Amino acid sequence: MVYICVVTFISLKICTMRNIAVLFVIFQSFACLSQSSSSEIINRTSHFIFNSNGMVQIDTVLMQINDRNADTEIIIPYSKGDKISVDIVRLEDQDGNIIRKLKKNEIKDRSFISSISLYEDDFVKYFDLKHDQFPYRIFYVSWIHYAKSLNIVDIDHARTKTPVHSGTLIVEVPIKDSIRYKYENVESPKTAVQNRFRKYIWKYGYIPPSSADIYRLDKDLKAPSIHIVPLHFKYGEAGSFESWKSFGNWIFRLNKNKDKLPAEECQRIDNLLRNTHSQKQKVEILYRYLQDYTRYINVSIKLGGLQTYPASYVCNNKYGDCKALTNYLQSMLKYAGIPSYYTLVEAGTKISELDVNFPSQAFNHVILTVPLEEDTVFLECTDKNIPFGYIGTFTQGRKALLVDENDSRLIPIPALQPDDVLCSRTIEVKTDIQQIHLSEVQKGHKYEFFNYAAKELGKDRVDDIIRSQIFSGKAELIDYELNSNNRQSPEISLTARFKAENIYKEYGKNIILSPFPMDFKDFETPDQRTTGVQINYPEFYQDTIIYEIPDKEIIKIPERVFVETDFGKYEIFFDLKNHTLVCYKTFLLYPGKHPIERYEEFFRFIQTMKNNELKNIHIETL
Amino acid sequence: MMKKNAILSLFFFLSIMGFAQEEKYSLDFGRVTQYEMVMKEYENDPDADAVILYNQGEYFYSGNYEQGGFLLRMKKQIKIKILKQSGVQYANFEIPIFNGNSGWESIESVEGTTYNIDQGFTQTKLETRNIFEEKVDDDVRVKKIALSDVRPGSVIELSYTIVSPYFFNMRRWYFQQKIPVIFSHLKYKAIPYYEYAYILKGTDKLDIFTATTPSNEIQFRNLRYREVIYNFGMNNLPAFKDEEFISSVDDYMININFQLSKFHHPNGGSRDIMTTWPAMCDEFLKNDYFGKYIKDVEKQAPKIMSGIELKDKSAQEKIEIITEFVKSKYRWNGFSGKFADTNLKDFLKQQSGNTGNINLLLAGLLKSEGIEAYPVILSTRGNGTISFSHPFQQFFNYVIVLTETDSRIVLLDATDPLLYYAVLPEKCMNVEGLVIKPQSEEWITIQQKTSSTLQKNLKLEINPETNTIQTEALYLSTGPDAYRLRSTYLGDPDNLIRYLKEREQITATDMKLPETTALNKPFTFFFRFESPVDNHSGKLFIHPFCSLSLNKNPFRQSSRALPVDLVYLQGEAYKSTVVIPEGYKVEYIPENESIENDLISFSYSTFITGDQIVFNTQFNLKQFIIQPEEYGELKDDFNKMIKCLSDLMILVKE
Question: Are residues B267 and B289 in the same domain?
Fold first, then answer.
């Protein structure tokens, strides 16, 4: 499991992210299923005033609550050091008549710490307004003065679930300060100059689909997004978004001089690397040392969203977040005379494409790039259990920002190939003793999950996962063994025995065998789907299922099915060997993006696979 | 080279620590033994992620020189051996503290150490700056500590003292934990002013239980007193394994709970905290947020219920109307509680409150209409069972309402609008409730009378030309099953379509529901779907219930230690009518089958009438609490049913 510091970085995006963080969290909790939304934003005006002393955000929001299913808690995040006030909160009927006003003491305060963190100095103001006559409206005005700011605005409605009927974004920036912005699915801004400030006004609206499509292609949502960055900023250090190079240079300076290692640590490194001459081996030894002795603990305070703790912090505590652990390994490598580069990446199984023409703080994770003679290695420093150089589904196949003092640049992180993600099963069905023997080798995301579970969750949880996920309810687990070969290669093997009484049925000369379908997602039917498909990495499954059927002369077996499309391929065929029927199956799904126009075709391919996977197997005997 | 280093450092470490060689575990804080440092697994449980070497507590009082009176100090020292990577999580601690009328509790003297020997013997101390405090809400904060330098092989120690002005808040002591515990010991130094009752759960006997009175007197200001020292201890406890289908962990995981029962005033006189059930009832009735709150409601009832027409209604009708009124107008904020959280005025304005606010309002409104209504306090399923010999109000966390009309008793809860007015939520099921009446001790066992059933009626039309089956389906559900489906539906048929897709892998069309369904009537819906026919050499293999019958065994454990608690009786029924297509005849249909024993009743029958075959099957669980020794049988019964229900029928050309 890779730990990413999403929220840490949201806290770093500070002022700018605020807006979206509010929206995001509120809307997330609105995950009710009804088609007409339980709540909707009638009006939202977000007013940002940016200047050298920081930034002020004033939000004026009118939202409508349509039924009881709506989650009406409103939260407004801020960080320690920011000044915040929620000035007006009132409940109105549909005609704007005030029903009641919220008192100051009804607006509460609590920590806002993401589940991956031990502590962050982030908080929320929150309040709740309930009423029994629907629809009713909540009106509030909030004001935040951010102590520090990096981006100005990051609004992206692709992640929101509540409709916004009329959204207005007003941004005021001193004329002398340059900004850069981009927007999509929003009208062009109106601009005006007033009192040495340039004012931009954007208008937007958005009705999101009622449910989120599986593997959806965000572009098809046509959701409004507005991103604004200052060309020059001061956040700890002064920096600039003029280019990736300048932004990388700022990151470099922000984290400079954090690489000093205590003398005993240097001695330990000397001992570890004694007798080793190959650069690659040295890197591997130090990476293993990092994995063996440190653990992931995220404590994010002050500039902690972007600034790393010094290497000595990790030396002392033997823990840190992605930045601290990466910086620590980088420091050790530097001591050993091996150059390596702190590399920012937007982690997550879903790849969000980086806009190369818009330098910004678009990242939530850090890995370490080590160029070696033979190859470049990318090291994930927060995972104690993966092989050296393994790049998993969380960071593969995307662009990242390599931080080099004067030569920071975007680099591609290699994508997972089909052989990297192949999960294969051999299932022996012993119909005479009603047992199933499974032997499975998992790679890719399944390896990542099971490897994490086996190492970090303990035996009881693993037992539970295997019982509930493998042949669950259809066969009863007798025993199992889970083997990962100790960080040598990115795969984990599982052998297990099950009792199953229901696999084999005989009807005269007909025998019906239960299938062992591959585990793959159920997609929406085309009429329910609103977006295209984005497959982030290949998925590759192979099954060999051996049904032992003693004392029977089999004369007819099912026919082969083979489908090959632009999306992938699927094959199932059968072979008869003495008294065994062997079923071979292969399913390969290619990574890629497919527009909504091709969804029907895609769905048909997946459905062909699914239908063949779920079908009982019929054979005939003499 | 490395090996030599390790051995050398081990010797070094042994010599500085001066171990007594025969000693396996040490109970002294700040001391580790050779065995603790080198042990690779815990002999009694080789799978254990970590093992608690000791967990020692000392609860005592200290004089509060600033404000007078006493403070309760709860000191805890814990030492854990980390055995596996998955045990490292036990080096992260979260300690909640609370706020109240006398201000915040505090935590003092936090000390933590991590011991390692893999790089030579090292001790890493916890630094104060690595202790953080999360603000959960206005009244709860959590101290968060992650000890440094922890990995498999480490031994960790943590010690801290919670200082509390709240004597009601003496922390429960868990002897047993999710990892094995070798030694768990709590010392409690009682003083003459506060008397506690203790309630032991999960066991009926402690390994250590002593009481001694040291001779020395203690003086605080003008008070002179002697302590009585109680020792509670248990040794070698296995890890507590959480299981599915249980009520509260606190009922099973061995623990001791302290309740302040009596306060003795230094100048003579005493005040009972634990008194008797009748006296407790009286206290409730006098409480501003309980009895007086109800009285307030009664006074204001005409205003609160203005516009509600109750004239000429029978008592029973009034109960239903008022309960539905409260359900529709006021919203539960998700918090349980036997007392109202906010005063009536604020609650009426906010229209949202805890169970106390809502159900005590209901009680008051009913009384104002002359209905005999009483609050009933209870401890919800997840909160642990009530000990009848300990009249403490702290154990109760919920309140409902009992009404009695013409000797008919109805229990009410107005927090969930999707439940019929006379049906209680699952968390209140199968628990004991205390009816709050003046000077009375009246218990009521709260049980769900109706069982949970789901019936699926199907009609299959087979088309051999296209190899498809068109099925019409009607689902009828009652009790908790109906509630579950209503909660899924929420007024949108698409929610049911999605539910069927996810749960049954079918694509439903023509979803139809009755315009309104009364909450006391079965929840029904109708839909159609298409499925393929297995056609092999002209033979049609058909599952009579289109794979909608029970096909997965919910009981998956290989063994069971705790009773299975299913909360209510449940069952399912499937009825299917298959129209034989023209030109086809039946080659095979499943035989009739039945299972009848103490646990379940199951029947499967078929008959042919004209061109139709009718399949009728149902199963009912006869108990809702199943003992661990019956678990195997229950699982086997389900396997047998599933096998039977999975059988196919075969149609062939005439």
Answer: no
Residue A160 has pLDDT above 90, yes or no: no
SS3 state of residue A307: coil
pTM: 0.86
Residues B438 and B483 in one domain: no
A:61-80 residues touching chain B, CB 8 A cutoff: 67-69
Tokens linked to A239: 């920096």
Residue B338 and residue B232 share a domain: no
Mean pLDDT of B123-140: 93
pLDDT in tens, A168-216: 999 999 999 899 999 999 999 999 998 899 999 999 999 998 888 999 9
The domain that holds B189 is classified in CATH as 2.60.40.3140
The type of residue at A420 is D
- Domain interval for residue B408: 277-446
Q: Minimal CA–CA distance to B68: which of B256, B187, B223, B297?
A: B223
Does A132 sit within 8 Å of B330, measured CB to CB?
yes
Who wins on pLDDT, A51 or A547?
A547
Beta bridge partners of A127: A74
Check residue A22 and give its pLDDT: 28
How many folded domains does chain B comprise? 3
Phi then psi dihedrals of residue B20, to 5 deg: -80, 120
For residues B447-461, average pLDDT: 87
- Structure confidence by residue, pLDDT tens digits, B309-329: 888 999 999 999 999 999 999
Mutate to test the interface with A, among B494, B504, B559, B637 (most CBs of A within 10 A): B494
Considering the domain architecture, whether residues B54 and B174 belong to the same structural domain is answered as yes
Please report how the helices A263-273 and A279-293 are oriented relative to each other, as an axis angle in degrees rounded to 10: 130
Q: What are phi and psi of B336, to 5 degrees?
A: -80, 170
- Residue B477 and residue B439 share a domain: no
Which of A319, A434, A481, A606 to probe the B interface (max B CBs under 10 A)? A319
CA A156 to chain B, closest CA, distance in angstroms equals 27
| Listed residues B271, B299, B314: the one ending a domain | B271
Binned at pLDDT 50, 70 and 90, residue B263 comes out as: confident
The residue type of A297 is I
* A621 interface with B at CB cutoff 8 Å: no
Q: Is A384's Cβ below 8 Å from some Cβ in B?
A: yes
Query: In sequence order, what are the residues at sequence separation of 6 or more whose Cβ sits closer than 8 angstroms to the Cβ of residue A33?
Result: A210, A211, B490, B492, B494, B495, B498
Instruction: Give the count of beta carbons closer than 10 Å to the beta carbon of residue A345.
Output: 28
Q: Are residues B44 and B178 in the same domain?
A: yes
A211, A459, A507: residue with CB nearest B650? A507
Measured between CB atoms, does A302 come within 8 Å of chain B? no
Kindly report the nearest CA distance between residue B151 and chain A, in angstroms.
7
- Is A486's Cβ below 8 Å from some Cβ in B? no
What domains sit in chain A, N to C, each tagged with a CATH number? 6-235 (2.60.40.3140), 244-413 (3.10.620.30), 419-621 (2.60.120.1130)
Where residue B631 sits, what CATH number does that domain have?
2.60.120.1130
B4 — contact with chain A (CB < 8 Å)? no
Q: Tell me which residue has tokens 């052989």.
A: A419
Residue numbers in A near B47 (CB within 8 A) = 459
Identify whether residues B616 and B634 lie together within a single domain: yes
**Between A472 and B608, residue with greater pLDDT:** B608
